[in-house]
Amino acid sequence: MNCNDFREKVADLFDKNIDMQTKAQLDEHMANCPECRAYYDELQETFDMLQPQKAANNTKAKTPHRIWQYAAAAAIFLLGFVIGWNHLFSTPAVAEDARITFLQQTIQSVQNVGSFQMEVYARTTPQDNFAYFDPTMPFVKTDIQLLRQNDSLFYRVEKANGRTVVSDGSEQYMWVPGKLYSKGSRGANFLERFANLMFPERLLNMQKSAIALSKENKVTQTETDTTIILSIEGTEKNHDLQQLFETGKMGDCQVIVENTFTKNDGLLRFVKLWIVKDGQKTMLLHIDNIRYNVMLSKTEIVHLPEAEWIDVASQKSIPSNRLEQLQNESAEQAAKRILEAIIKGNENQAGEALINYSPVFNLLSTKLKGCKVSDFQVRKESSYMGVYVFYTLITPDGKQQKRHLALRNDNEQKIWVVDGGL
């Protein structure tokens, strides 16, 4: 079984009536392919989130930098790209739905394309991670190029004047010019949930899921002379960290997704996503003019800047007494130690927790020099594997800011690591 076969059949693993031989083949492939194992794990997380009356508790999505923002909660879109959920939710009525048949036809037409290009315009910042969205920010253009050759996948995802991720078929590279140069395996999660935007078949399978769950999501379909427009409206967690801090829980926000297909070939061409909060409708992102089977240069896609690359998989060995000390820390204690180490410029006191920030430690230390921290409060949210630690930052001029760290300890060493907030 190759990777293409695996991805076509992986949804069967979520079907209680799966053939045992097929299951064995899928399990064997995952055991030998880290990339497909990571792909399956993401589907499992999404499945957990889609289950009615079941809180998701296994997501790896990193938290945004700013506290007071809710837009990353568009889970029906950014967390809801799934493969084959019709296995789970189909009924005779759904199976006969013409929209399901239409989408299945379009999925078949795009899942084996050799290459494509698209432009994604999202409200974010050029240098922040790809999972970060902020409805108060202007649109930033992200160019995506993807090329399939045999069983290899090459891609380039590039924010205008900012963060870039490249896969050369065996390794991934991520950089922010002049600040950060990281590399990792094919399974490295540099793109986070944004990776789902790179595969039109995932977008279309998400639509099938939403239709199958139409009792909870409003679905409408309209046509023009040349296009078919499918709109889906649902409600998801708003990821408002201010609300989490003040009340201990997150509320909901309305999400609207509009997809435009060309009639003559049934291909997905445009996607628009809005969020609605307090009656205010804001477009969060739009994908323009997806182009299929275009001529792309592999050399240009995988071109890298000359830099000293840091392997994110490398972990420092920790002496046993130090490891025991770190494992016994509470999240609040860890947050205080980490922040004070940054303020004092002493990376040795927090290097284990700052593996994702090592290249920019000096920059962080300069920004926080002379500051003080106090009033630590821990909040847990069921959709995040870690915890949020809120604190007050007092700047040298006496001004106070409420900030947070996202910490998680679901690593092999069971120590608190900074996952976001800096």
Helix content: 25-40%
Give the DSSP E fraction (strand runs of 2 or more residues): 25-35%
Shape estimate = globular
Coarse structural class: alpha+beta
Tell me about the biggest sheet?
Answer: 12 strands, mixed
Counted beta strands: 16
Low-confidence stretches: 49-96
> What is the number of helical segments per DSSP (H or I, 4+ residues)?
13
Radius of gyration: 22 Å
Average pLDDT rating = 77
How far apart lie the N and C ends? 42 Å
Q: State the strand order across the main sheet.
A: 7-8-9-10-11-1-2-3-4-5-6-12
Please, what is the oligomeric state? single chain
Helix and strand run: HHHHHHHEEEEEEHEEHEEEHEHHHEEEE
Q: Can you walk through the features of this model?
A:
By secondary structure, this protein is α+β, with helices and mostly antiparallel strands. 28% of the residues lie in helices and 30% in strands. The strands form two sheets. Strands 7-8-9-10-11-1-2-3-4-5-6-12 form a twelve-stranded mixed β-sheet. The two termini are 42 Å apart.
List keywords for this structure.
30% strand; single chain; globular; alpha+beta; 422 residues; twelve-stranded mixed β-sheet; 13 helices
